[in-house]
Amino acid sequence: MEAPGETFPEIRESVRKLCARFPGEYWRRLDAERAYPTEFVRALMESGFLSVLIPEEYGGSGLGLGAATAILEEIHRSGCNGGACHAQMYTMGTILRHGSDAQKRAYLPGIAEGTLRLQAFGVTEPTSGTDTTRIRTFARREGDRYIVNGQKVWISRAEHSDLMVLLVRTTPRDEVAKPTEGMSVLLVDLRKAVGNGLTIRPIRTMINHATTELFFDNLEVPAENLIGEEGKGFRYILDGMNAERILIASECIGDAHFFIDRASAYAREREVFGRPIGANQGIQFPIARNYVETEAANLMVRKAAAMFDAGIPCGTEANMAKLLASEASWHAADTCLQAHGGFGFAEEYDIERKFRETRLYQVAPISTNLILSHVGTHVLRMPKSF
Questions:
Q1: Which among 73, 74, 244, 317 is annotated as catalytic?
Q2: What is the spatial distance between Cα 14 and Cα 31, in angstroms, rounded to a whole number?
C-alpha cells in the first residue's frame, strides 16, 4: 500500500526490485551467523543508491537528502536492513563540505563508484557517551603527521570500511575557551592503520550490526588527512549528525510500514473463533493507530530533509524526526508481534528480527531523552539538568 503523495516513485520501485533479490531467508542466515551482508551492499553500490548525495562532478547522482530517505525507507519496508551501509551515504559529507579540493578529487569518485568504502564514523567513546566534548582520543602533531592515542566504541562497519572519519582532540578540553573547540577531524585509511597502531575488536550485540570497539596506540596519520582546519572539527561533523538522524528516521518509517503491512495482512487472513482476527477492534484499532502515527512522523522526516537540502539549520527538526519515527516504528513492532501471537516469535516470519533491529533506534544515534533535553532547553529555553 503506497502512501498518498509518495516521493521519488521511480527510485522506490527500483529499490523494491533490488530488495526482492534479498528475501527473509538471506537476512535470517546472516543473523544466525552474525555475518555482514556483502552481496546486498555490493548490489546497492553498483546500482548507485549509496552515492545519490555525491555531486555529479565526482561521479554521484547529485540528488538531495529527500531521495536518500526514500531509498532507505524502501529498504526497510522490504524487510532488509540499511544499517550495514547507510553511513556510505552521509559520512562523505564531511569531505564534501569541509575537505580540500585535493581530498575531494582523491576520495569522492571512488566512493561514488563503490570501489572505496567510507562507512565508519569514529566519534563515541566509552567514557564520554553522548557528551562529545569530553572525548579523550588525542592526536598530537609531529611534523607531517599526527600521532593518535585513545579508544572509541560502538563504531559500526569499521571492519567493512576502507576509510574512517575520526573525531579527535588536538587541544585538551581545559585549554580551550569553549568545550566544542579544540577537536579536529582526521580521515583514517583503515587498510593501512589496522595492525599499525589500530586494533579493531568486534562487539556481539542483540542485533547483527557489525559494531566494534577501536583502540589507538600511536597510530600515525598523515597531516594531509586533516579535514578543514585544526580545532574546528566539532562544527564539521554536525551536518553529518543531522543527516544521519534524518536518514535513520526514514529507516524507522520503513520499519513501521513493514510491521503495519505484516500485521494488517495477518489480521485479514488469520481466523480465530470463526472470523478474521482483524474484525476485532482490539486487533484492528492498534494497527490503524500505528499507521496514523507513522504517517504523521513521516511528515516530520520530510520537513527535516527538505530543510537540510535547502541549507536551512535543522538540528531540532532532525532530532524531532528521529524521535517521532523511532517511536512509531517501535509501537508498530510491538503491535505486529502481539497480533501474530506465538508466530511472531518464530524466526521464519522475520518479525522478531526486525523487532530487535528497530529497538536500536530508541538509543542510537542519539537517545530519546537527549532529544527531549534538546527541545526543552534549546527550543523551550528551560534550564539544563546537566
A1: 244
A2: 25
